[in-house]
Every structure is written in structure tokens, then in C-alpha cells.
Batch of 2 targets.
Target 1
Amino acid sequence: EDQVTQSPEALRLQEGESSSLNCSYTVSGLRGLFWYRQDPGKGPEFLFTLYSAGEEKEKERLKATLTKKESFLHITAPKPEDSATYLCAVQAGDSWGKLQFGAGTQVVVTP
Amino acid sequence: NAGVTQTPKFQVLKTGQSMTLQCAQDMNHEYMSWYRQDPGMGLRLIHYSVGAGITDQGEVPNGYNVSRSTTEDFPLRLLSAAPSQTSVYFCASSYRAGGTSEQFFGPGTRLTVL
């Protein structure tokens, strides 16, 4: 059974204090690993797709990396506007676009 | 493009009532899906569709029905609402079924069943 576990559940950072979020997964034939950002009261917003171990993608202060067992979302010098819940999801090789989501990491960045 | 739209934004039902949550997309996407989001549990797939006339069950389909008569619309029907269906519901779409294209999410419907 496909499984996605995110840690920590919550993270409180000072502005400028870099940190990393973890997404560990077990899936039968990874087709893609997705990172989303979700603001309170809104739908998830797509950030990255990673396809194979060793791949990295960057967007502003965010960088996502992928190994065979886990993915990391690194937040470099965060700002208060980076406060959100970050969701990780995997798509298995035999699925029709079906995503298995983790429970998310809630990030709060204080000035 | 309006993207993925959902109506209503909020809804309160009594146990046993039925209702339909509406979802529409104007991006000509093949794939559409419904998720529910509960605290501490992440998003769970209810039903999905890979094209007009084709639907299938996800992880938590009991108590819900779907149909897809057009590419644009994918309504979710609650047959007889129960308090366990209190949740936030999200509709999502992506360009191609079977691919790994990103899924676009709607703004959600917050449903309370009393």
C-alpha cells in the first residue's frame, strides 16, 4: 500500500532561519512526487514535480530534492509570506493520475 | 481562464439530506477528481474521472456518487448526508489522465453535517 509521511507536523521559524521539511514515501513504482503549498481557506497550489532520484528543482526560496525513499523541501532565508502548509503527494506507476497525499507540514515564519 | 471553480463555498446540511457539490473547469482537462480534507489526515481521493463518461472510485468513495457527462463538469453527490461527511471538499483537474501533469485545485467547499 502506498504511504506518504511528512515531518515535522509543524515548524516555527524566525525570518531568515533556513530549514527543511521531510516527505518519506513507499510506493510501487514512483511516477512522480509533487509538492504543493496550501494557504488557510484555499486549495493547494502546485510547486514542483520530481520524477527520479537525484533530481532537484528550485523556485525562489524553495528547493525540492528527491531520493529513492524521501524528498526534502528546503526553505532558504524564509520570509513571513512563506507561512503555509506544505503538502507532499506521490503518484504510483499504475495510477491514472491518482495522488496519495501526506498530512502536511504547517510552517509559520515570524518577523 | 477561471481555472477550477466550486460551488457552494459553504454548506450546512442535516443528517439524511442530499446535495450536489458542483465543480467545473475551463482548461479542457481530461482528468478530474474529488478529494476530502480532514484535520491531520491530508487529502483523500473520493472519486476520479479520466474523461467524459468514465469515472472510478478512489480511497473513500462510500456515500458519494459522481458522473461526468461533459469534459468541463464533475459534480459530487452526497446521497444521504452523515456527520462523518463533515469535511472540506476539493475538486482538482489535470491536463491528461495517465500522465504526471500538475493538478489544479479549486477553492474548496466547506461542508458541515449536523
Note: Chain B touches chain A through 30 residues (CB under 8 Å).
Target 2
Amino acid sequence: ETGVTQSPTHLIKTRGQQVTLRCSSQSGHNTVSWYQQALGQGPQFIFQYYREEENGRGNFPPRFSGLQFPNYSSELNVNALELDDSALYLCASSFGGDEKLFFGSGTQLSVL
Amino acid sequence: RKEVEQDPGPFNVPEGATVAFNCTYSNSASQSFFWYRQDCRKEPKLLMSVYSSGNEDGRFTAQLNRASQYISLLIRDSKLSDSATYLCAVIRLDTGRRALTFGSGTRLQVQP
């Protein structure tokens, strides 16, 4: 167990809806990264938060947004859901610039 | 061209076999290299970092060839429990953020 927890584990939404996914980082970790993994693909970097500020973003549209809270937990929000947003969403925590990431078990999002 | 490329496989090998995977990366600014293991729709777990001098962890050996821009993973004496998808990942120096770029993974099936 990595100590990184994500909720919910599974979610079904319809096109156009909005979704919020949550992540609690491992104790002592102040950096949270979010990744999207479509079926048959590797995880793709969405964005990273460090000390409550966005600290880098991948090639995702603005309808993907996030937050990090003072306790370093984090949320990923996706607005105006599209069918292609169906994927496993992974949260990973780390301490500062440490390159070793610890992944949560993910949220499987299905958009119908 | 994808930034990180892997042969998707599957590689079907008998127990006890030796199997090797390669992963090529296109950006010469890539700085750090990793192999992750992912079981079916679960979170990726760090298998090993890859160092310029090569490194070994039990039955697993990882190597980096900067000149040809590829990394490799060798698994000796394959076990049934090695069946999984192996993801290579790199961190680029030029983006200013420590985000992993993953390949699509290579699937390994070890058969009795």
C-alpha cells in the first residue's frame, strides 16, 4: 500500500456532466500529480500541484482543473464531460522534487 | 511520433525464460528513466529506476543507452507472477516540471 487514497473507485457519468475526483496524498508528501490512462495506453500527465499551486500542466483543455488543499489532498474537476474522458484517473504523490511517485489505485470513470 | 515508444507485445514466454523489453525515447532532454509494473487496471508500481551505469535488482536488470536513446529491461527466470504490463517512463529536464512521460506499455504473459 502506498498510502495514497483516491475516491471514488468507480464512477459513471453522462456527456456534459461535471465530475470531481479526490486524492489524499501519502503522509509527508506535498506534491500531487494527476494522470489520465485510457485503455491500452500509458498514463498521461494532466497537471501537478505543489504547495497548493499548479506547478505544470500537460496537454489537457481548461475544462480539466484542480485544487490542492492545505493538508496537500487534491481534487481533479472535469467539466462538460466527453465520451473520450472515459479512463482511469490516477493520482500520485511525492515530496518536493523527488522523482519517485507513489500512485493511488485510481478512479475508473465511464462517460456514457 | 510518440515521445516514448514501446512494443505493445504481448510477449508470451514459458516459466524460467529470459525476456527483454526495449523502450525508445525521442527527446534528448530526457533526464531520468524508470520502469513501472502495472497489473490489469491497477496503479503503476515503480519497479526500478534506470541509471547510466545500468542496475540490477534480483532477476531484473535495467540499462540505459543515451547515445541511441533507449532503455531496456531484462527479466531472468520468469515467474508466473511476472505477468503484467511493463511501462517505461522518462522525466524531461527542459519542461521545468518533474512529470513522467510514459510509454504505452509492453504486456508480458508468463505461461506454465
Note: The longest strand of chain A covers residues 87-94.
